[in-house]
Description:
Low-confidence stretches of chain A: none
CATH topology of the largest domain in chain A: Rossmann fold
Oligomer: heterodimer
Structural class of chain A: alpha/beta
Structural class of chain B: alpha/beta
Mean pLDDT of chain B: 92
Strand order of the largest sheet of chain B: 12-14-9-15-16-17
Largest sheet of chain A: 6 strands, mixed
Number of domains of chain B: 2
CATH architecture of the largest domain in chain A: 3-Layer(aba) Sandwich
Order of helices and strands of chain A: EEHEHHEHEEHHEHEEEEHHEHE
Helix content of chain A: 25-40%
Radius of gyration of chain B: 20 Å
Number of strands of chain B: 21
Strand content of chain B: 25-35%
Distance between the termini of chain B: 46 Å
CATH class of the largest domain in chain A: Alpha Beta
Radius of gyration of chain A: 29 Å
Largest sheet of chain B: 6 strands, mixed
Amino acid sequence: MKAVHYLNQFFAGMGGEDQAETAPTRLEGAVGPGRGLQAELADIEIVATLACGDDYFAEHEAEALEALLEMLAELDPDVLVAGPAFGSGRYGYACARLAAAAAERGIPAVAAMHEDNPGVGEAGAGYVVPTAVNVAGMRDALPRLGALASALASGRELGSAEEEGYLARGFRRNYVAEKTGAERAVELLLAKLAGDTRTEVGGDMDRVEPPPPVSDLSSALVALVTEAGCVPQGNPDHLQSVRAQGWFRYGLGGADTLASGRYESVHGGFDVTLANEDPNRLVPLDTVRGLERAGRVGRVHESLYTTTGNGTPVVVATKFGEEIAGELRDAGVQAVLLSGT
Amino acid sequence: MAWELATFSADLLQEPAVDGASVDIVPPGSPVRVTHVLDAVEPRIRPDGRAAFPTEGRAGEGRTNRLDGVVVLSCLDFPGEERPLHEQESIVDLGGPGAALTPFADMTAVVLTFSPGEGGHVAIDVEARRATLAAAEEVARGTLEAEPQGVERLELGPADERLPAVAALIQLSDLGALYIQYVYGAPAGDAGLPRAVDPAEVLDGAVACGEYHWAAMRNPTWFFQRNELIRTLYREHGKTLRFAGVVLMRGYEQSAVEKQKAAERAAAVAGELGSDGVVITTDAGGNSHTDVMLTCRACEEAGIKTTLVLAEETDPQSTKPILTDWVREADSIVSTGNVEELVEAWTPERVLGGDLLLDGTPAREAGPIPVRNYLGAANQMGQLALSARTE
Lengths: 341, 391
């Protein structure tokens, strides 16, 4: 099997900072740390070393990547290895960007650098093996880098970040555990009862903190927003009943109520029979108009915003929310009555 | 395994709501995709003549025969009439990569494909469920004259008082027609929940499934009959814990007040059992996950430690796990996998249940299918070993 190794100008032996403008260059075989790496690879030959000056990469990233990817395509390796870059930010960045680009093109790729190197967040679907902060960590890094590169080249399914010694890329991936969920749940509970609380789903959940109260509702512009799938009768824009692809804005035209027969819910996640008898119970326009007349809210925004909240991936729902909130902010809306189902 | 197929299908149907049924018997590991699966049931029958899925009396007493290695899969494509809720696609692959997502691929599958008749979706569902459970008893009838290959006794003997007391808090769905689980034939919402039941009742046919929302997050009847959580707690009783019992509660309570009340009452019942800790399970998602979180908080506030069992609904390109609801007390969660991940495409040799998926795609050439559509694949009772991790 074939590996290609990426180094900066310094580790490729082309010179120090004075050569940092070196354009992408292809060298035959293993060079510099590549010789040590070669010894750690199982049935894999480093057929070529690609080198690039750190400044050149930083200043001409698109051109540099294009040239390097062209060389990679020609070499058609089983794995790309980049670095180790240790704590060097520019070098680490280049390693990570190239690894990400290679992985995107289906070439298994692994870079090595210190876990605080800014490149770590740039490796995309490429892997990053952690190293010490400086070159003194070379001897320790190469066997681990070689092991992961060998695993990648072999095409076997990789285990978790912890098992395989790479930095977690952050993707949630399914796998079949050794024990059933029930057995693991009982184990986790017994551990928690013994004072050792652990979890398979991290506590880093996206929590929306409640904003401060609106100081004076009687002068505020208030908008109605819903995920109840509430649309004009007949659903003219074909809002989905499940896994919505978008949201819609409908002018209220000064109406006092969401009349049955003029509005309906197409939500597929609850029984809409009662809701369709009185759509105000999904979007309380009748009540809010009453409050408007009584002077308790300033004014009702002219449009209703609606989508279906049913099986929508959270990233998609977040995007809808940001788009709707952006429009409302631009319209000067100060408060939203968001009805959920 | 002996049963008369002719008698079986003729006797099976009583009401015009189901027009007919075809029966296919599929050997383990066959390259077969089964679509529109409503439920999966283990064939069971009682030698004393009582019902295997009783609607009166009590399950969990006496002797029940089970036919190991056989599963009855009921399939039905509801007519495209207007109805308040829609069933979602539900697939069991007996071969191919999807076979890793089901316990049924290793079994002989008795696939019942019902043709819907008249009377609307509620009547169709009632008859299909009745006929499926009746079929499961018929399939097991041959065991009445056979010698058992093994006998399992479900019994909770005395256990060391110093071991922690652990209960299972099992949430059942009731969100209206087609989204209901049943306790002794009554919808979960009408079954006087939450309440404590003998764990053996759940394993012995007290709970049945008529819930057809996201397939992967459903708990078909088989998952109650062979409930892995309850069986694990029986196994560990006296060794690492004391099995304090099972609390059944309803998920999909319909108002904030009812949700909070149900959570507190469930925690109180777990407390009455003397629980030091509970494993909280659920069914389906969204709304029911809010019930889980409120129940988790109520238990922790009552001094009962909790571990939750939940499926993730995370975009495969996302870098963090996503749950639709979460409370800070939920610090111990088992992941039963991400339902949004795709399962590799597979072309079965044969399709049963219906040739077209609900979205109109030919089931034989459906391409990659999300885990979401595989029956029970990411069930939240911990029945299977699928999980998700950060890579």
